[in-house]
Input
Amino acid sequence: MAYKHLIVETHEKVGVIFFDRPEALNALCEELVQELGQALDIFEDDSNIHVIVLTGSHKAFAAGADIREMQSKTYVSAYMEDFITQGWERVTQCRKPIIATVAGYALGGGCEMAMMCDFIIAGDNAQFGQPEITIGTIPGAGGTQRLARYIGKSKAMDMCLTGRMMDAEEAERCGLVSRVVPAGQLKGEDIKVASKIASFSLPVTMMAKEAVNQAFETTLTSGLKFERRVFHATFDLEDRREGMSAFVEKREPNFKN
Ligand code: DAK
Output
């Protein structure tokens, strides 16, 4: 499928989606977000794809939602059209693991989009921020909520109230990103990490993702119960039997998904 603002590649079991709107530092216009939804639908429906990588260019993951598109909106128009909500939420509805790999700017909606993914790998030139306050608004796609959960209240307040940027080193230190790699190596490194995850049983990776996400949606007691049920359920999987047998027999497992 051809896209105007995306480049889509596959590397064996890994599907990679690049934002490709260099003239606007990958600002997430409505058309791009719609295309993103289509690309995600295709990868989710493709049983050969186990893991999705969402990425941008060396200069920008995405410098936010498109300010030119938002400039003339009113409260009523944004409310009535439920402004850009649906496409954005598609990322959070992904059942397969989705990794954001960020080089350069991840600002506003770009930072929010990265946080909607399961984890973030950053190039050492990455810059994260929620600068909406500098243009007279506040984060609208989870910045105030997800950032506070990722990095705690004090830093989230600092970011949202000052609009400052956070570099990759600080982002790793405070838990916003899982690892930092030299920006020039980000492309190979992301495929390596995604391929590692893709080598495991797909239903089990999906269950692990669902269980970790419960930690952010429920109480500890309910989350633990959910985890226990899913853990018990894995005992009915052929891949669980294969994994444990392979360990005991000192060989590589051959997961059938
Ligand atoms: N939108 C539109 N165009 C943008 C853009 C953006 N967010 N960011 C950059 N561009 C464009 C610039 O206008 C410029 O275009 P031309 O002038 O060349 O035509 C081109 O990209 C290159 O940018 P600069 O010339 O500014 O490049 P610099 O290297 O000098 O500066 C910068 C890079 C990233 C520091 C700067 O471009 C910048 O400050 N950009 C804006 C960052 C920002 O404020 N981002 C937050 C936007 S508000 C929601 C979902 C999402 C959102 C809200 C609701 N729902 C689901 C309801 C999100 C809101 C936001 O993200």
Remarks:
- The beta strands are 6-11, 14-19, 51-55, 60-62, 98-102, 105-107, 119-123, 127-129, 165-167, 179-181.
